[in-house]
Amino acid sequence: MKTNIFSENQDYLTKATVEGVRIYALRTTNLVRQAAKMHNCSHVASAALGRAMTGALLLAATMKDNERINLRFMGDGKLGEVIADAEGNFVRGYVQNPDVFVPLKNGKLDVGAAVGNGKIVVTRYLQNAEPFTGFCELKNGEIADDLTYYLYKSEQTPSSVALGVLIDPSGEVLHSGGFFIQAMPGAKDDVLAKLENNVMRTPYITQLLEIGYTPEKIIEILGRDLQISFKENVPVAFKCRCSRERIKNALASLEKKALQEMTEDEITEAHCDFCNTTYQFTKAEIKEILAGRTD
Ligand code: ZN
Question: Ligand 1 centroid vs 222 CA: distance in angstroms?
Answer without folding.
Answer: 36
